[in-house]
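Re: [ENG-882] Designed sequences occasionally contain unexpected residues at chain ends

Forwarding the minimal case from QA. Structure tokens:
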């Protein structure tokens, strides 16, 4: 457990620093800091680290791998946590996602949305859904292409037991703030387009540890932050 306590040291300070960075970016953009929700991305980090970040007041946590997430949920069942699924979705994992998560950010196909809707237990509130959009063209495979977004959004919006909330994007990594701003502005424009189609959505899930300020400046309402809170991730085997 020595390794685990090494990870836990400094977590509260790092969370506070991320909160301060979000607040600074929000004020610079003339936005209220409270309009931006931080999702702490705990993939690859142990349940003890999640517990420590929760103790510092964090309630939203994001996971990318279903099996790993479920083990952590079981270990942390005594805590009030809102779990967000943010990873690629395989068809054979939709049932567990529908049963165990409150939010899914990475829906990019109707077939997956239909499975999630059919498998969402009736006793639970609707599953909160974001559609993942591919705004970096060839460089990434995940996400619906902008041309197909409106049709997908209309179909998903019609599914009971899901509630379509907005869009998620993972732009290609770049240090160039101009490119970061351009990509996030493009996602924002897609959300505005959907409003023109009669879909009034309220969520823009965009921004990670390295591009948080640009995302907040362009209208992010949820930022998904891993390394800036938990530290460097061990390489995924
Ligand atoms: C891992 C991950 C994050 C967090 O990335 P960091 O660079 O660690 O902040 C955010 N979103 C998704 C979809 C991820 O897979």
């Amino acid at each position: 457990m020595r390794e685990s306590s090494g990870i836990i040291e400094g977590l509260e300070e790092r969370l506070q620093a991320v909160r301060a960075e979000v607040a600074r970016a929000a004020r610079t953009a003339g936005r209220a800091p409270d309009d931006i929700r931080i999702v702490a991305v705990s993939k690859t980090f142990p349940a003890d680290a999640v517990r420590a970040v929760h103790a510092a007041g964090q309630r939203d946590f994001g996971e990318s791998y279903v099996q790993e997430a479920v083990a952590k949920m079981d270990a942390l069942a005594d805590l009030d946590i809102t779990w967000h699924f943010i990873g690629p979705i395989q068809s054979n994992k939709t049932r567990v996602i529908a049963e165990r998560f409150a939010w899914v950010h990475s829906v990019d196909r109707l077939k997956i949305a239909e499975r999630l809707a059919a498998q969402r237990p009736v006793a639970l509130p609707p599953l909160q859904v974001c559609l993942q959009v591919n705004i970096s063209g060839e460089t990434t495979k995940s996400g619906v292409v902008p041309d197909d977004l409106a049709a997908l959004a209309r179909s998903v919006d019609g599914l009971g037991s899901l509630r379509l909330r907005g869009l998620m994007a993972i732009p290609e990594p770049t240090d160039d703030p101009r490119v970061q701003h351009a990509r996030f502005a493009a996602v924002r424009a897609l959300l505005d387009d959907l409003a023109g189609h009669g879909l009034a959505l309220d969520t823009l899930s965009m921004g990670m540890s390295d591009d948080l300020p640009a995302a907040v400046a362009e209208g992010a309402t949820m930022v998904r932050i891993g390394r800036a809170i938990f530290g460097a991730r061990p390489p995924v085997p």
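QA comment: On inspection the terminal residues look reasonable. Strands lie at 37-41, 60-63, 82-85, 103-107, 127-133, 162-169, 203-205, 222-225. Proposing we downgrade this to a documentation issue.
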